Amino acid sequence: MTRTDPHREGSKGIASQRTRRSDAPFFLVMGGISSCFLLLILLLLLADVLFTSWSDFSAALRKPEILAAMRLTLLSCTVAALLSVWVATPLGYLLSRFKFPGRILIDTLVDIPIVLPPLVLGLSLLILFHLSIGQWQLESFLRDRLGFPVTFRWPAVVLAQFSVACAFAVRTMRVTFDQMSPRCEEVARTLGCSRAQAFLHIALPQAWRGMIAAMTIAWARALGEFGPILVFAGATRMKTEVLSTTVFLELSIGQLDAAVAVSLLMVVMAMAVLLILRLLGAGVAA
Amino acid sequence: MMNRTIAVMLGSALLLISLLAMLIRGDGNRSTTSTSHDKPLMVYCAASNRAVMEQVRQAYEDEFQRSVQIQYGPSQTLLSSIEVTRDGDLYLPADDSFLEIGRSKQLVAEILPIASMQAVVAVSKGNPKSIATFADLQSSNVRLVQASPEGTAIGKVTKAILTNLNRWEELDRATLAYRGTVNEVANDISVGAADAGIVYDAVLHTYPGLEFLELPELSAGVSQVSIGVIASTQQPQAALHFARYLSARDRGLLRYAEHGFHTSAGDVWADHPSLSLFAGSMLRPAIEETITAFEEREGVSVDRVYNGCGILVAQMKGGQHPDAYFACDNEFMNQVHDLFPQPVEVSQNELVILVQKGNPLGIARLSDLARDGIRVGVGHEKQCAMGWLTQNTFREAGVEQSVLPNVTVQSPTGDMLVNQLRTKSLDAAVVYLSNAAGSADVLDAIRIDGLKCSIATQPWAVSKESRYPSTAERLFTKLSSADSKEIFAAEGFQWKIDPSKSVAE
Question: In Gene Ontology terms, what is one molecular function of this protein (chain B) (predicted)?
């Protein structure tokens, strides 16, 4: 935590003692301010823990509806996060490396899911899939021609999560590529690499840490998604119910104990998955 | 590094495919484990009804092996989804005002009442703030929360009844916060963020830590919970089957009562109910088509008995009690008023003199029927409303004594007289205009002017002893719809139902 100045190495003990004395208030203030936020989060979790009991928590875990919601949450969040990274990596790279007509517009469009109220996004998805263009409708086409209905089914859950999560992933990947010097890729191209080879050989391996960060953010955002899911996928038990909708449903009939138990379950799941992703990111970076 | 990059890319793609396969398989498993032999029913249900609805759904699926998928959410959000997707079979909002909105947008067809809820004041168990009167809610040491008067049913109801009493503004000033749903109000009191709140009594069933107080100021605050059939449903019979189950007094209503709702007398449950209807013969051409369509949509049978109203009344007095009675005239409904206490006047029909095409005998008024040699047919004065009205009309016109010698036939129904006219065994008959509707090619109708008593009014009523009052009410809703009105008009009837009170426009 301390930084040493090489020019002052070997200076007198009194001076160094003065430095140590002046650092303490610094860390006290900085740490104090930081710990306020950490304390708030800890107190929130503590309040939840105190509000519920182990029996409520284990009862929630035993309910088949909650287990189904947990399974769907894990699967859909992971699919949404993986898809987000797959989409965000090329899009972030293009936005970072190239100047082209309409770039500002695309940059702005990418941010729209971030700023839109979640319910609006859900409603927009619902309208998109049911907008009739003449006799043609996207939902009818997918359902009747391809046998793959979306609305009020799990694909709607994934799509709702992906729509928001991907916007955050794109932002993260763009920052990642912005921070990487294009020089190495340019050198590789002078040595005969194509753009694709330079991207695969040079850019992608350097962007691993950013990709893990993008995946982490996308997964976390997907986990917390609620409004668009409720509107676009609904909250059908054992079908489109994810943990965030479970909390809403339990609250709506006054089952506060169950709602808090499921909330804590989400906290545990989120911490476990985010920790794994962070460790994975550290491993890849190493 | 290249190999590693491609390996990770391939790995993530494989992981993605595997996860998608798991989602698809999970979805498929749920479909196959469903015991449904039909397309699952899709119900949009207010989240606040989840506890009771889950019990009913489970019982229904067990009893009929038909899958019911329930979409929970806020009432308005669900209505918006229905409006956009035009999908689903049934809609159960927290308050039936949403169903009326749905009906006005032609999103909802039938509405089946289920139960009602009473506005009350919720407090923590033991009433720690000792709230006993309306004035106590305005005390400075009582933190009062309410549901939004704009967005929630309870908020709307509370504001409306208190505004009528000129008490709204004082309560508004005393309100600490307005919440988005009635459950949020209850949750606030439950976690100690508020001391009191106005909620529905039934909502508190799932809050063991709360109790409620009934205040006289809120006694008029009652909301109805009903279920509506979505107009665009592809399976109306199945949808109505579940809706009838939910609103049956010995099925779904039992669960609603257990959850603190106030239930009224719904239908007795029957998988395929058989509704009995007594109706005057004159009404047959006007109602038959509508009843057939009703049977097909509802999956129920309507056993119609068409006859002269005098005969029908005699049968009812003899012990036969139909679920509904559609009389030819108020006079006959009045004779069984004890069985049918709340009749509604639907249509009117006037008596006419029916003669051969071209009116070869030159009959222009009632007195012409008294001419020598004219064979006249009339309704039987005891057996049908038409005969009773004809006698009254003759008496009023002062031709009773002169025409009766020419009456060669007294029939219980107008149709029989029409047939006799068509076979030329009669020269004239006094029948309803509707009786002549299908014979304009061979018969002419001559109006009887200036005699109010020649006009019959047809009332409809549901028996107070009916086992299926709700189904009978829905049949009436169909019979009073715009489509039915057109048929009545085509058959020569005049519409009597006040459009502002019509329930099926």
Answer: molybdate ion binding
Q: What are phi and psi of B445, to 5 degrees?
A: -110, 130
Please list every residue in chain A whose beta carbon sits closer than 8 Å to the beta carbon of residue B2. 200-201
Q: Do A75 and B19 touch (CB under 8 A)?
A: yes
Residues A78, A158: Cα–Cα separation, whole Å: 9
Residues of B at the A interface (Cβ-Cβ below 8 Å)?
1-2, 4-6, 12-13, 15-16, 19-20, 22-23, 26-27, 30, 42, 47-48, 50-51, 54, 69-73, 77, 80-81, 84-87, 181, 183, 186-187, 190-191, 203-204, 206-207
A126 and chain B: CB distance < 8 Å anywhere? Answer: yes
* Structure token pair of residue A31: 């740490």
In this prediction, residue B297 has a pLDDT band, given cuts at 50, 70 and 90, of very high
- Beta-bridged to residue B348, according to DSSP, are B457, B494
pTM strictly above 0.90: no
Alpha helix (H) residue ranges in chain A:
13-51, 54-62, 64-97, 103-115, 118-130, 138-140, 154-179, 183-190, 195-198, 204-206, 208-224, 227-228, 243-252, 256-285
pLDDT at A18 over 70: no
Residue A152 falls in which region: left (phi positive, over 0), alpha (psi -120 to 50) or beta: left
E strand or H helix at B124: strand B108-124
Average pLDDT taken over every residue of chain A: 86
Task: For residue range A128-173, list pLDDT tens digits in order.
Answer: 998 888 888 999 899 888 888 898 899 999 999 999 999 999 999 9
Taking only the tens place, the pLDDT of each residue in B341-387 is 889 999 998 888 999 999 998 898 888 898 888 899 998 887 777 88
ipTM of this complex: 0.75
Give the integer Cα–Cα distance in Å for B465 and B469.
8
Q: What is the pLDDT of residues A78-104, one digit of tens each?
A: 999 999 999 999 999 999 999 888 889
| Cβ–Cβ gap B71/A152 under 8 Å | yes
Compute the distance between CA of residue B137 and CA of residue B131 in angstroms, rounded to an integer.
7
∠ CA B10-B12-B15, rounded to 5°? 110
- Tell me the C-alpha distance between B208 and B193, whole Å: 17
End-to-end CA gap in chain A: 22
Do the bridges between strand B41-46 and strand B90-92 make them parallel or antiparallel, or are there none, so unpaired?
parallel
Distance CA B225, CA B253 (A): 11
Question: Residue B347 has which token pair?
Answer: 């249509």
Q: Which of B333, B349, B299, B320 is nearest to B455 (CA)?
A: B349
- Contact (CB, 8 A) for B226 and B97: no
CA gap B478, B106 in Å, rounded: 15
Q: Chain B closest CA to A104's CA: distance in Å?
A: 29
Q: Which residues pair with B462 in a beta bridge?
A: B324
CB burial string A18-47: b at 16+ within 10 A, e below? eeeeeeeeeeeeeeeeeeeeeeeeeeeeee
Q: Report whether B233 contacts B239 (CB < 8 A).
A: yes
Tokens representing A105 are 């517009």
- The reported pLDDT for the residue numbered A2 is 44
Structure tokens at B167: 């008490």
Q: What is the bridge-based pairing of β-strands B108-124 and B144-147?
A: unpaired
Express as a percent the part of chain A with pLDDT over 90: 40
- For every residue of B45-90, which 3-state class applies, written as one string? EEHHHHHHHHHHHHHHHHHHCCCEEEEEECHHHHHHHHHHHCCCCE
Joined tokens for residue B486: 């057109």
**Residue B14 neighbours by CB distance under 10 Å:** 10
Contacts of B5 (CB under 8 A, 6+ apart): A200, A201, A204, A205
Residues B418, B339 contacting (CB under 8 angstroms): no
- Determine contact, residues B225/B75, Cβ cutoff 8 Å: no
**Residue A2, CB-side half-sphere exposure with 13 Å CA sphere:** 10
